[in-house]
User: Fold this.
Amino acid sequence: MKKPKTGDLKHDVTETRRIRSAMLKPQNVKIVINIESETLVQLRELAAQSGIPYQSILNRFVKTGLVKSNSTESRLEKLEKELDRLKKKLVA
Assistant:
């Protein structure tokens, strides 16, 4: 079998765009969670006011909480390292 020449190959622009856009979209996973009914009511009220689906709002809250948690942990780690450094300095 002959190897095709580069000049003979056709570029499908539409398909390339479709593939690239599919790769950029975040992959969602469906899960089941237990949530307090009062919390769900509040989420749905917020969704009605904003026009954003409540599941999207819930996802944003989870992301925000994770970012805050990570930044708090890293800040705490920095403080602990600084405290250890100061303890070593005082002992020496």
